[in-house]
């Protein structure tokens, strides 16, 4: 049976969505620091930047980056990850993932203001819908077939899925920086660890990879 | 020159002081879970429980536990770590560290209600004083000679020392549990990492050890 998976980058103080975006720097400096080790991996360069030169880091961070892209059959993401919040009034806005986004699967974008679907190059289709977490998950499971479903974030949506007990595997890459502003992942998730096996690995980059794996019911 | 060091156990969501204490369980269940890997080490059993049987875990958690006790010449702690808050009206209360506390050095307890000093077995002396962080540090440095000074916590005091730039080495043992209530270490410490080298190691217990080491001025 396919798994519901989630991969997020957080700071040491648990910030998963940064808050220093400006018109000139739509991702913000904090975001750059938060995902620095990930964006330096060979896999990120290949999959997101379409850089086939072989540049980028290998090693543990790259192993997790490769795992992020492996075996996913559909994704659910919040409107912010697609980029709707940045361009709410532009019906022609096609997101900030380029014409060939790195998903290569159906992607369900949760929004209160649905718009027509977008078919991108490389197999990514964006479908915009207003739905509860379980409703969206049912659609994504059907689209994914026997492959896994990724809950793509941001953290507010991620927390809804975690609180509802809908996530089988949660991987967080913890970057050892302290941001103290933004949206924290762990709020109102007291005791989450009790439903999971938890394991940790440290990368030479300083990033710590913590994986929560839920015991499957029989 | 001696260093100012701090070692704290925190949860994945940064909680360093737990909040589920009861009269029947003065440390609380959360505290037990937070420090479980540490209290299972051979060093903790020897140094705190006076168990010389050799029981307890070896390995990375024990290496950090041994580092915690090595080379300290004086400690500064908050009233809560001594136990004053639990027995505010008992002038004969001698703290919850037993008659032979594991410090074996002068200990300066910061409190708004000073009381006479206590001389314990094994070289620990408790001195109670109302002082600013730099004032207390000057006293502790003098008492420590060429050995290191430990800032013992709790987290409110720890944050004051960190914000004031007075800590040379901060080690946090991060236990992969989510508590979501208690006092968080990282609040208002945005950018702390910029003043330090940061390294990470993961233990088979699941605990992640992150060490901030400040570049020394020449």
TrEMBL record, chains A, B:
Pfam families: RibD_C. It comes from the Bacteria. Residues 4-182 form the Bacterial bifunctional deaminase-reductase C-terminal domain. This is Dihydrofolate reductase family protein.
